[in-house]
């Protein structure tokens, strides 16, 4: 690969630049070389299911060649992005289990830049899984440790707010086997929160953790007060009386519905407040007064990207509705400045969907995929080298 001519501006204290990522693979190992403007403190850990290597560092200014992202040998591909001004990440998708060694730093020929190298050695499945579990445990411990000195540290990881639909008097749909939607989505949301926490890449908060009724606008308020980076509402679909329609659907908020069915679903979900015994107030017009149209437009673009990421990621795990990406006027998706989506994880009216919803293996896979979609989305929000995946049109 040709080495780019590096012209780094050292005059201002700017974020370190990474100008190239080079991968060279051998029979049993591979080397990743990051060409950086200065010495950068980086850490690594691995994730399994699917297998990934994550390299984390401070805020980095990625100025990679346009063809970047392709892998070689044990690396299928990689993505990179800046999650917050202090926090960047490169995620390498692995084709087989391989474990990283330590970083080595050498000035590049001609000077002015550094090559940061990382060796990746093929490993067996057991050792890789052990390393992934160990890394997850270590991150959980770090999060839970509340020594006085760590209280002053501010956790800058992005915040995901998960919103389990319904609760209390508002039962949601009643499933084919007598299960209530409110209970199914709460169990799923708690499993999803655990999965995100175990990955350690994002913080997570839930609008409810028990069987209580919370008005829709309160859920939106919760997300805004906590400064959520993403809002994800979890529901089980209901609209049909037919027992053979099944699959998951991802919705974004839009006053113009994508289709009549989506409009009906939103109308049903928006009835939650009256089901819970709360008078439904007219929509808060002050929101639309305050918000710049631009913010709303930008948020909608990001919500659509989030929804596409979710659909792409869950496609191999769940039977998708024939038109899995839809839009409608959901009251709970109304925050004008937080990218948001609502997933109907399956049809409460379908026996096979309900069986899946109650299966621990399926829940584990589905929550993994959603957690990946969320962290990928946040990763791309910084700087995205990747075109949005194309979806089949309705
Ligand atoms: Zn619902």
Q: Structural class, judged by helices and strands? A: alpha/beta
Write out the CATH superfamily name of the largest domain: Zn-dependent exopeptidases
Attached small molecules: zinc ion
- Spatial order of the strands in the main sheet? 12-11-13-16-14-15
Q: Biggest sheet, open or closed, and with what strands and sense?
A: 6 strands, mixed
Helix content: 25-40%
At the third CATH level, what is the topology name of the largest domain?
A: Aminopeptidase
How big a fraction of the residues is strand?
25-35%
Summarize the helix and strand pattern as letters.
EEEEEEEEEEHHEHEHEEHHHHEEHH
Short key terms for the protein model shown above:
Aminopeptidase; alpha/beta; about 30% helix; Immunoglobulin-like; 10 helices; about 400 residues; five-stranded mixed sheet; binds zinc ion
Verbal overview:
By secondary structure, the chain is an alpha/beta fold. It has 2 domains: 17-130, Immunoglobulin-like (Sandwich); 159-382, 3-Layer(aba) Sandwich (Aminopeptidase), CATH 3.40.630. The protein has 10 helices and 16 strands. It has helices spanning 125-144, 148-151, 181-199, 216-225, 260-270, 272-275, 285-290, 293-314, 351-357, 360-382, and strands spanning 17-25, 29-36, 43-47, 52-57, 61-62, 70-72, 75-84, 87-94, 98-107, 114-122, 159-164, 203-206, 230-237, 248-253, 320-328, 340-347. The strands form 3 sheets. It has a 6-stranded mixed sheet with strand order 12-11-13-16-14-15, sandwiched between helices. Strands 5-1-2-10-9 form a 5-stranded mixed sheet, with no helix packed on it. A 5-stranded antiparallel sheet has the order 3-4-8-7-6. Helix 3 (181-199) packs across helix 10 (360-382). The longest helix is centred in the C-terminal third of the chain and has 23 residues, at 360-382. It is elongated and about 70 Å long. The protein starts with 16 loop residues before the first strand and ends in a 12-residue tail after the last helix. Residues 1-12, 148-152 and 383-394 have low confidence and may be disordered.
């Amino acid at each position: 690969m040709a080495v780019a001519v590096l012209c780094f501006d050292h005059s201002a204290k700017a974020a370190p630049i990474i100008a190239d990522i080079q991968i060279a693979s051998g029979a049993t190992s591979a080397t990743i070389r990051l060409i950086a403007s200065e010495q950068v403190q980086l850490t690594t850990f691995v994730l399994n299911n699917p297998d990934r290597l994550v390299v984390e560092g401070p805020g980095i200014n990625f100025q990679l060649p346009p063809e970047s992202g392709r892998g070689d040998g044990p690396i299928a591909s990689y993505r990179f992005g800046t999650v917050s001004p202090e926090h960047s990440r490169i995620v390498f998708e692995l084709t087989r289990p391989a474990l990283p060694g330590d970083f080595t730093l050498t000035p590049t020929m001609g000077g002015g830049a550094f090559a940061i190298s990382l060796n990746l050695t093929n490993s067996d499945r057991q050792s890789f899984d052990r390393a992934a579990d160990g890394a997850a445990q270590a991150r959980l411990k770090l999060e839970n440790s509340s020594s006085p000195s760590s209280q002053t540290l501010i956790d800058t990881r992005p915040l995901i707010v998960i919103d389990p639909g319904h609760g209390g008097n508002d039962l949601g749909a009643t499933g084919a086997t007598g299960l209530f939607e409110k209970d199914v989505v709460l169990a799923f949301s708690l499993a999803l929160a655990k999965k995100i926490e175990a990955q350690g890449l994002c913080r997570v908060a839930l609008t409810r953790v028990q069987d209580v009724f919370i008005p829709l606008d309160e859920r939106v308020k919760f997300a805004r007060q906590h400064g959520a980076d993403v809002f994800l509402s979890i529901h089980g679909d209901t609209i049909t009386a037919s027992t053979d329609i099944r699959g998951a659907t991802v919705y974004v908020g839009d006053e113009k519905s994508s289709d009549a069915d989506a409009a009906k679903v939103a109308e049903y979900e928006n009835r939650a407040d009256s089901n819970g015994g709360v008078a439904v107030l007219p929509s808060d017009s002050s929101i639309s007064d305050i918000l710049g149209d631009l913010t709303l437009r930008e948020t909608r673009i990001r919500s659509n990207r989030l929804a596409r990421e979710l659909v792409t990621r869950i496609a191999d795990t769940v039977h998708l509705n024939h038109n899995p990406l839809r839009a409608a006027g959901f009251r709970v998706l109304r925050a004008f400045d937080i990218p948001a989506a609502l997933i109907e994880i399956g049809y409460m009216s379908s026996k096979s969907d309900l069986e899946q919803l109650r299966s621990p293996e399926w829940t584990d896979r589905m929550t993994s995929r959603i957690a990946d979609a969320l962290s990928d989305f946040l990763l791309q929000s910084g700087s995205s080298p990747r075109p949005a995946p194309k979806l089949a049109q309705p």
